[in-house]
């Protein structure tokens, strides 16, 4: 069973594999990740896919691994380890990071990933009001957003963010009157709207950006919040967006991730950081 590259023709098989593991058939998300990253898979001789992984590069310095799935019938036979190792090798010398479920974590630890933090998935209908502190981003803001994002993440996410501008339902920016000091976006998934990324100068600005986005949505919103953000987590809990599943942030060889993470409040999605 050899590892091959995935294309958009494999999208249905990816969704079947995800569905078989109790994950949603998140077509928009898979399409976004496959178009911007490198998907690898193992064909199931019986039809469909036995395993998947997606590698998303941020320039040559950093790369995210996501969508690690092995179909149940091929579980515990080493496919998961093989396909993640393949993605790591393809990443070259980049700093490789990922967000792990409790099921995936031992596999990554065996490959040399170390836990650098934990996050909780907050989900629910937002009960707060708009803060009115941000404005909708316009195409002319993209350059400044990309520069701010690079300062905070220490990575060149320009290609991903340029594509995210079309993928997102809305991107908002906040500033100090002179320049943009924070930005956040939201995008529609199957049954909820994900708020992310959230990059802000402080917690109050992060809350304002989230309020201005989430107050427009009448279905559940989802935000991934790091355990190093107890204030933000408590505020979300108090506004209907409550903590659920916990995951581990992991970096190959251990952290820390580059950039000024003090201004990083939420990832684009857990698959991308
Ligand atoms: C997590 C997941 C990808 C692991 O895939 P996998 O192919 O079963 O992984 P591996 O076979 O490489 O390793 C799993 C276990 O099988 C063991 N194993 C591997 N080859 C084996 C073999 N030939 N004989 C016996 N055991 C074996 C490994 O040592 C490992 O044991 P451990 O969990 O006790 O450490 C899979 O369970 C999955 O898709 N889960 C649902 C989705 C998910 O949570 N993905 C992770 C997202 S972060």
From TrEMBL:
Signal peptide: none annotated. It comes from the Bacteria. SUPFAM superfamilies: Acyl-CoA N-acyltransferases (Nat) (SSF55729). This is Acetyltransferase. Residues 1-141 form the N-acetyltransferase domain. It comes from Planobispora rosea. It holds the Pfam family Acetyltransf_18. One of its GO terms (molecular function) is acyltransferase activity, transferring groups other than amino-acyl groups.
């Amino acid at each position: 069973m050899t590892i091959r590259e995935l294309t958009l023709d494999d999208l249905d098989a990816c969704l079947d594999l995800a569905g078989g593991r109790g994950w949603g058939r998140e077509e928009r998300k898979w399409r976004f990740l496959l178009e911007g990253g490198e998907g690898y898979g193992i064909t199931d001789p019986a039809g469909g896919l036995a395993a998947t992984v997606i590698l998303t590069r941020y320039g040559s310095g950093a790369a995210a691994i996501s969508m690690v799935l092995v179909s149940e019938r091929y579980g515990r036979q080493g496919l998961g380890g093989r396909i993640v190792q393949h993605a790591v090798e393809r990443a070259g010398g980049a700093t490789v990071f990922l967000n792990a479920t409790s099921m995936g974590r031992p596999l990554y630890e065996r490959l040399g990933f170390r836990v650098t933090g934990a996050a909780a998935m907050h989900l629910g209908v937002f009960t707060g009001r708009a803060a009115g502190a941000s404005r909708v981003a316009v195409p002319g803001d993209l350059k400044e957003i990309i520069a701010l994002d690079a300062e905070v993440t220490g990575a060149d996410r320009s290609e991903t963010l340029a594509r995210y501008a079309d993928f997102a339902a809305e991107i908002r920016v906040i500033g100090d009157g002179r320049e943009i000091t924070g930005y956040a976006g939201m995008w529609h998934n199957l049954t909820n709207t994900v708020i992310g990324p959230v990059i802000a100068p402080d917690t109050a600005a992060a809350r304002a950006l989230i309020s201005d986005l989430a107050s427009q949505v009448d279905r559940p919103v989802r935000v991934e919040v790091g355990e190093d953000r107890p204030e933000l987590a408590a505020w979300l809990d108090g506004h209907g967006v409550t903590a659920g599943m916990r995951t581990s942030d992991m970096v190959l060889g251990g952290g820390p991730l580059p950039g000024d993470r003090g201004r990083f409040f939420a990832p684009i999605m857990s698959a991308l950081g």
